[in-house]
Amino acid sequence: MGREHHARLRAATGATAFLALAFAFALLLLTSVPAGAGSDGSDRGDGSDGWRTAASRAVRAHEQARAQVDRLREADARPTRIKDAERRRKTLRSDLWDRLWAAERASGDPVAVDPSGRDGHCPFGNRSRPPATGDEQRTRPWTTPTRGYRLTAGYAAKGSRWAHRHTGQDFAVDSGTPVYAVGAGTVHATTCGDGFGNQVLIRHGDGYFTQYAHLSRIDVRKGTRVTAGQRIGLSGTSGNVTGPHLHFEVRITPYIGSAVAPLPWLRRKAVDATAAAP
């Protein structure tokens, strides 16, 4: 009976220690993660430079690793070298993903807590269909996210509406302008209710995510497979905006803090969004 009592006491003590450790970690996370988003959700911090700096360094490390993989493939390096470099890139992305998911879930980011948009009662339209067989977009593996646009605020731009830097590329268009998937992929999230307003995130075959924000209507659902040029919604003025436009972003993970420059990323796909808008 004495041994059983001591065993139970040790188990209870261990459980208490575990709960205390978990609580301390959660408290640390909540006090170091931002409370609100800046314009376009570009700032998730409340002055925590350390949080932003760590995420920026992780993003740079990932992009350097990705560039190394590309160089090895172009040089026709040994498969083992390419495999090792790709494994390192994926490890960097996985670590960044885990950290940002925890931070965004704690801060209430809809992408982390309500990726289907059901709780937010997002404005869903009828489900869209891939472009028709004869449509020119059907033959292109990658395309621009909208048509008839004017490029305005760019990636890393400074402005009074952003606490820090702009995290995407803005395409100025009238409200109700069709917005298209830039490439084939799977809809990862369809959310609403924060600074991005109504938004869609798509995961592509290369592992990157594209975000389409400030929509007036969403025409796809989480889990839907889409093709390049397929309409995913309509542009609008939802969220933190001063006028109608599409906020387009490219991310390493689905979460804020992992954005990369979108126009160079599109150029790697043979899409020049700076040319005369189609």
How many strand elements? 10
Largest sheet: 10 strands, antiparallel
Uncertain segments are: 1-47
Global mean pLDDT: 82
Write a concise synopsis of the structure shown:
This protein is an alpha+beta fold and 278 residues long. The protein contains 5 helices and 10 strands; from the N terminus they run ααααββββββββββα.
How are the secondary structure elements laid out?
Elements: H1 2-32, H2 49-74, H3 79-107, H4 110-113, E1 150-151, E2 169-172, E3 178-180, E4 185-194, E5 197-204, E6 209-218, E7 225-226, E8 231-235, E9 246-251, E10 259-260, H5 262-268
Antiparallel strand pairs: 1-2, 2-9, 3-8, 4-5, 4-7, 5-6, 6-8, 6-9, 9-10
Helix pairs in contact: 2-3
Task: Describe the protein.
With 278 residues, the protein is an alpha+beta fold. The chain has a domain at 116-268: Glucose Permease (Domain IIA) (Distorted Sandwich). Helix content is 35%, strand content 19%. The chain contains five helices and ten strands; from the N terminus they run ααααββββββββββα. It has helices at 2-32, 49-74, 79-107, 110-113, 262-268; strands spanning 150-151, 169-172, 178-180, 185-194, 197-204, 209-218, 225-226, 231-235, 246-251, 259-260. Strands 1, 2, 3, 4, 5, 6, 7, 8, 9 and 10 form a ten-stranded antiparallel β-sheet that branches. Strand 4 (185-194) and strand 5 (197-204) form a beta hairpin. Helix 2 packs antiparallel against helix 3.
